[in-house]
Amino acid sequence: MSKKSNSAAILAALLAGAATGVVLGLLYAPEEGKETRKKIRDKANDLKDKAVDEYSKTSEIVKDKYSEVSSTVKDKYDSLSSQFKETAQNVAQTVKDSYDKYKDQVVSKTSDVVKDVETELDGMK
After folding, report:
1. Which listed residue, of 11, 24, 76, 82, carries a Cα 20 to 30 Å from 52's Cα?
2. What's the CA gap between 62 and 68, in Å, rounded?
3. Is residue 75 part of a domain?
4. Residues 65-119: pLDDT tens digits?
5. Is residue 26 part of a domain?
6. DSSP string spanning 45-107?
């Protein structure tokens, strides 16, 4: 928004300078007061119309930029969201696979220990 403020300030300064130049030029012109006031009024209306046109153009540019940035942010969010979901699924699957692997190893070792204990107990009888 800083660029918009700077652009608006520059535009306002240019218009004020132009208006001041027009008014001074007309006031020192060797014409009748009524005619000079009409010219000042016409020039002021022209400057107002130009300012409105410039504001409209600037406003459209800002709206277009906002839409562009908004779309880019949405696309990036969607992309990152998909990547996160995929990574989370991969991690969950890796954890499940590791759990199953180690569970089978523990069950196997436990069975071996139980058999060894049974054998020892049978030998003691």
Report:
1. 24
2. 10
3. yes
4. 888 999 999 999 999 999 999 999 999 999 999 888 888 888 888 888 888 888 8
5. no
6. HHHHHHHHHHHHHHHHHHHHHHHHHHHHHHHHHHHHHHHHHHHHHHHHHHHHHHHHHHHHHHH
Q: Count how many domains the chain has.
A: 1
For 16-59, the pLDDT digits (tens) are 888 788 777 766 766 677 777 787 788 888 888 888 888 888 88
69-89 b/e with 16+ CB inside 10 Å = b?
A: eeeeeeeeeeeeeeeeeeeee
- Give pTM, 2 decimals: 0.41
Main-chain dihedrals φ then ψ at residue 29, nearest 5 degrees: -75, 145
C-beta of residue 41 within 8 angstroms of C-beta of residue 19: no
Residue 72, pLDDT score? 92
Residues in Cβ contact with 70 at an 8 Å cutoff, skipping those fewer than 6 apart: none
Residue at 106 is within a domain: yes
Domain of 94?
32-123
Token pair belonging to 81:
């969201």
